[in-house]
Design goal:
Helix content is about 20%, strand content about 45%. Strands 5-1-7-8-9-6-2-3-4-17-16-15-10 form a 13-stranded antiparallel sheet. Strand 7 and strand 8 form a beta hairpin. By secondary structure, the chain is of the alpha+beta class. It is elongated and about 80 Å long.
């Protein structure tokens, strides 16, 4: 068996698909790329048994040639990724795969069959299928993964992923993409064109991270993703890639219940000024400390303490606020995470009082599809 392929196409495909493969796994099958050769193209699959990534690239092979084989992901990718742009030839005999290129060659083991390699899950009768632009999916998954606390996955498995929920609205089907760690919540909203019933699913943190990473590299502003899922698996197809992942089957909490309905107070502040003040404060008071914010007409005052080293910091930032004085306590790092997820020059903080959650969102910006919620803490 012999085939010729462009090195950059192959290397890019292997790099994307390799994101699903976990090194040092107890199952040796999961260290392998699975190749399926058909006339004119080569399909490549990588998996950790929970997330499956596959794509196809054009190749030059003998007419009518069909084959399947498995090669070590680590050896193959590291063997070719430093090569300059060229065509390479892959030749396989009974035990060795030889990769030849203009300046040399290397040979590594390969297998025509490997027991234990998992099959890609099939969604034969999807409960839900819809199309949506790739850009909001990419942006939401990229930023909302920062809202997930992996250390709580065992205790709260339903919060260990990004939640997708389709709601039936008067002006169309609304897609909410949500993530939370119980102290901080973020969601993105967009609309889908399909006439589909209300439904929801939760994808793992790893699947969401992989999805955003590949979409960022491969998708354009006009790219559209086809998403279909049942009670156990989701299949997402876009730009010659297919990502199939097992879903988190635990019920996701009703996030709408924690969003305050009555928020008469509104504060508008320069986002970068607030970020700079927070970062200076966190240097003195420790990264994981709380920040107490005195909200006063025309300004806010941020205060932080490090009791262990008897250190404290105080910052004042000008703000557009003309309501009653309020004092609130937040986890400083959680507030910074939200501010970094917003691109607008100014942000709005809307709230009822210092004891209930604050809604934080872009102010007068095109990023109106983003909304964030930050839980207040008891002031000690």
């Amino acid at each position: 068996m012999q085939l010729k392929v462009d090195i950059k196409l192959l290397c890019n495909a292997l790099d994307n698909i390799g994101k699903a493969i976990t090194r040092r796994t107890t199952n040796p099958a999961l260290d392998l790329f699975y190749f399926l050769l058909k006339p004119g193209f080569l399909t490549i699959i990588g998996t950790d048994s929970e997330v499956f990534i596959q794509t196809s690239i054009p190749v030059d092979s003998k007419p009518g040639m069909n084959a399947q084989f498995y090669i070590s992901a680590y050896l193959l990718l590291n063997g070719i990724k430093s090569l300059d742009k060229c065509d390479i030839t892959i030749s396989c005999d009974s035990t060795l795969c030889t990769v030849s290129y203009p300046s040399g060659q290397f040979a590594i083991p390969f297998y025509y069959d490997f027991q234990g390699y998992p099959n890609v899950p099939e969604i034969k009768r999807p409960e839900t299928e819809f199309n949506t632009p790739c850009v909001p999916i990419m942006q939401a998954c990229a930023q909302l993964t920062a809202f997930i606390d992996p250390s709580k996955a065992d205790l709260y498995p339903n919060l260990a992923g990004v939640h997708f929920k389709i709601n039936d609205q008067q002006d169309g089907r609304k897609l909410d993409i949500v993530a939370t760690d119980s102290l901080i919540l973020g969601f993105y909203s967009s609309f889908v064109s399909n006439e589909i019933p209300s439904s929801s699913m939760t994808v793992s943190l790893k699947a969401a991270s992989i999805l955003s990473s590949i979409m960022k590299k491969e998708s354009t502003d006009n790219s559209v993703a086809n998403i279909c899922f049942d009670s156990s698996n989701v299949c997402i197809q876009f730009d010659n890639y297919t990502v199939t992942a097992r879903l988190i089957e635990k019920k996701y909490p009703d996030y709408n219940r924690v969003i305050p309905s009555h928020t008469p107070c509104k504060l508008v502040i320069d986002r970068q000024n607030l970020i700079s003040a927070l970062k200076r404060l966190m240097i003195i008071t420790d990264k994981g400390s709380d920040v107490v914010i005195d909200i006063r007409p025309g300004e806010i005052c941020l205060k932080g303490h490090n009791l262990l080293f008897n250190q404290h910091s105080e910052e004042t930032v000008i703000a557009d606020y003309n309501d009653t004085e309020t004092k609130v306590c937040f986890d400083a790092s959680k507030l910074l995470t939200i501010l970094n997820a917003i691109n607008a020059p100014t942000v709005s903080l809307v709230f009822r009082d210092g004891k209930t959650p604050f809604i934080i969102l872009p102010h007068d910006s095109e990023d109106e599809n983003k909304t964030f919620l930050l839980m207040s803490k008891v002031i000690s």
